[in-house]
Amino acid sequence: MGKIVNMPQFDMSMTEGTITRWYFQEGDFVDKGESLFEAETGKASNAEDYYDKPGKLLKIFVQEGETVPIGTPLCFIGEEGEDIPDVSVPTASAAQPEKASAAAPAASAPAAPKPEKKEVSARAKLDTSGYSYDLTVIGAGPGGYVAAIKAAQLGARVAVVEKDELGGTCLNRGCIPTKALYTSANQYNKMKNADIYGLCAEKVGFDWSKIMARKDSIVKQLTGGVGALLKKNGVTLYKGEAVCKDGHTVTVGDETLTTGYILLATGTTPLHVLQNVDSDVTILTTDELLSIEALPESLAIIGGGVIGCEIANIFASFGVSVTIIELMPTIVPMVDKEISSLLASSLQAKGVRIINGIGTKAVKKQGKLNALELENGETVECEMILEAVGRRTVDTAFAALDLERTPKGTVVVDDTMCTSNETVYAIGDITGGYMLAHEASKQGEIAVNYLFGNHQEEEKVIIPSCIFTEPEIAFVGMTEEKAKEAGYTVKTFKFPFAANGKALTLSESEGFVKVVVDAAYGEILGVHIIGPEASSLIHEAVAAMNLEATAAAAGNMVHAHPTLSEALMEAFLGASTGAIHI
């Protein structure tokens, strides 16, 4: 059966293309991998390779120099004597058909329109020479300190106000300390299972105090590094509680700073939702848990999100009896369902008990233990309780500014990170996006580039997410379910690490790479990984999506062998032209 070749979508902004050259004439034989034609999209000329069943170029529907919409039939390749379908070729100005005819199956209709980016109103830049600083940043977490350094590099006079330790939650009570403990837990698990690698390890154990000391040393090194970077770039640091009096005035204790602009990077603090808690019961957040001097025998975690699952993995690895109580039907409900299911199985294999779809009615003291009374009548006893159910905006610094907020309390910003006050900008957790350090850093760069640099509106910012459990999880873009909800005709492919040679040599073959693709144009909509080094592997997917590569293009990139990244290659190929090793 013959194949109609349609005008492809070389990039996501493309709506039409002009055929500038046919590499074959009617009657010529076309083999797999040969360049079939060249098209100009307005941005560049692109050669289109042919990867379907080889055959003769029986009919060219669109001639050189003609401009047609994406999805338009361009030619028909088949066997000698095969009937050529009767197709209708629209002009570039004509609307694309809602449905392709049976005789000429054009690519499926584009997805539902993606939301347009909010327009940035034209704002005159201030003359900030009359102020003490051009920019005052409140909060020295990953968003604030990166923004401050970047602004200083652009020539601005910058002050940073920090009431706590440099580095914010991420460096002191989040990303870095948990990853230090995660690494110790992983190494301990490997040592306990040394026989898998043909090694003998006797009397394997751990010293919690040394593990915590290592964690503290890493945190101290990094926070000290932030201080050195601020100083190196000429940023003035103020230690204390900042209070914004107006859009140009910040007080820090007895000092008053005048500033052209203010950048809010105040972050969030753990949320408390448990009710009916006895007065003698201690409920910990990660702030306290990451400083405990001794491990408990049992730990109940309220919340099966990213933080809850990471802590469960760490503590279970060191022999703590862990129970996760999650109100939603699944743990980490934001991730791909297949990944959530595999993570649950992996945690349960480590002895973690997972209770889904049930809330907690009350928490009582029962001797030396705590008793959590669940809504189904069950009681869970434990020595220690961690509440990991989300975080809330820290707004004490800017409460007087009366900024526009969402019903959840987050600050409303435009694409330049400007708030409803034109001299006040906001980044990071308080803007309601992903609570990720790297997103806050990127937002900080966007804001100061707009204020002090050569602002260029970015078409998109692709943000990956990682969960440091064992196995690791990483994802970017849409899940299969979200892509379908958005109106895409979806094609997916899943490649298991069990079929990857490097994973087998590491004895880490659990997991897979799942690719979600728009079946019409091959656009990569999402990539989801659970398995070894997922947090590093995901960036190949981020690069491919940022460069608007199709799944076929990403899969045809040569990968070194044997490497874990070959699993990505195979998944991309599987979602396009066909995987090899499965």
TrEMBL record:
<feature type="binding site">
    <location>
        <position position="390"/>
    </location>
    <ligand>
        <name>NAD(+)</name>
    </ligand>
</feature>
<dbReference type="InterPro" id="IPR000089">
    <property type="entry name" value="Biotin_lipoyl"/>
</dbReference>
<dbReference type="GO" id="GO:0050660">
    <property type="term" value="F:flavin adenine dinucleotide binding"/>
</dbReference>
<feature type="compositionally biased region" description="Basic and acidic residues">
    <location>
        <begin position="114"/>
        <end position="123"/>
    </location>
</feature>
<feature type="compositionally biased region" description="Low complexity">
    <location>
        <begin position="92"/>
        <end position="111"/>
    </location>
</feature>
<comment type="similarity">
    <text>Belongs to the class-I pyridine nucleotide-disulfide oxidoreductase family.</text>
</comment>
<keyword id="KW-0547">Nucleotide-binding</keyword>
<keyword id="KW-0274">FAD</keyword>
<protein>
    <recommendedName>
        <fullName>Dihydrolipoyl dehydrogenase</fullName>
        <ecNumber>1.8.1.4</ecNumber>
    </recommendedName>
</protein>
<feature type="region of interest" description="Disordered">
    <location>
        <begin position="86"/>
        <end position="123"/>
    </location>
</feature>
<dbReference type="InterPro" id="IPR036188">
    <property type="entry name" value="FAD/NAD-bd_sf"/>
</dbReference>
<feature type="binding site">
    <location>
        <begin position="303"/>
        <end position="310"/>
    </location>
    <ligand>
        <name>NAD(+)</name>
    </ligand>
</feature>
<feature type="active site" description="Proton acceptor">
    <location>
        <position position="561"/>
    </location>
</feature>
<feature type="binding site">
    <location>
        <position position="179"/>
    </location>
    <ligand>
        <name>FAD</name>
    </ligand>
</feature>
<dbReference type="GO" id="GO:0004148">
    <property type="term" value="F:dihydrolipoyl dehydrogenase (NADH) activity"/>
</dbReference>
<dbReference type="InterPro" id="IPR023753">
    <property type="entry name" value="FAD/NAD-binding_dom"/>
</dbReference>
<keyword id="KW-0285">Flavoprotein</keyword>
<dbReference type="InterPro" id="IPR006258">
    <property type="entry name" value="Lipoamide_DH"/>
</dbReference>
<keyword id="KW-0560">Oxidoreductase</keyword>
<dbReference type="InterPro" id="IPR050151">
    <property type="entry name" value="Class-I_Pyr_Nuc-Dis_Oxidored"/>
</dbReference>
<keyword id="KW-0520">NAD</keyword>
<dbReference type="InterPro" id="IPR011053">
    <property type="entry name" value="Single_hybrid_motif"/>
</dbReference>
<dbReference type="GO" id="GO:0005737">
    <property type="term" value="C:cytoplasm"/>
</dbReference>
<keyword id="KW-0676">Redox-active center</keyword>
<keyword id="KW-0963">Cytoplasm</keyword>
<dbReference type="InterPro" id="IPR001100">
    <property type="entry name" value="Pyr_nuc-diS_OxRdtase"/>
</dbReference>
<dbReference type="Pfam" id="PF02852">
    <property type="entry name" value="Pyr_redox_dim"/>
</dbReference>
<feature type="disulfide bond" description="Redox-active">
    <location>
        <begin position="170"/>
        <end position="175"/>
    </location>
</feature>
<dbReference type="Pfam" id="PF07992">
    <property type="entry name" value="Pyr_redox_2"/>
</dbReference>
<dbReference type="InterPro" id="IPR016156">
    <property type="entry name" value="FAD/NAD-linked_Rdtase_dimer_sf"/>
</dbReference>
<feature type="binding site">
    <location>
        <position position="326"/>
    </location>
    <ligand>
        <name>NAD(+)</name>
    </ligand>
</feature>
<feature type="domain" description="Lipoyl-binding">
    <location>
        <begin position="2"/>
        <end position="78"/>
    </location>
</feature>
<dbReference type="InterPro" id="IPR012999">
    <property type="entry name" value="Pyr_OxRdtase_I_AS"/>
</dbReference>
<dbReference type="InterPro" id="IPR004099">
    <property type="entry name" value="Pyr_nucl-diS_OxRdtase_dimer"/>
</dbReference>
<keyword id="KW-1015">Disulfide bond</keyword>
<feature type="binding site">
    <location>
        <position position="429"/>
    </location>
    <ligand>
        <name>FAD</name>
    </ligand>
</feature>
<dbReference type="Pfam" id="PF00364">
    <property type="entry name" value="Biotin_lipoyl"/>
</dbReference>
<dbReference type="GO" id="GO:0006103">
    <property type="term" value="P:2-oxoglutarate metabolic process"/>
</dbReference>
<feature type="binding site">
    <location>
        <begin position="435"/>
        <end position="438"/>
    </location>
    <ligand>
        <name>FAD</name>
    </ligand>
</feature>
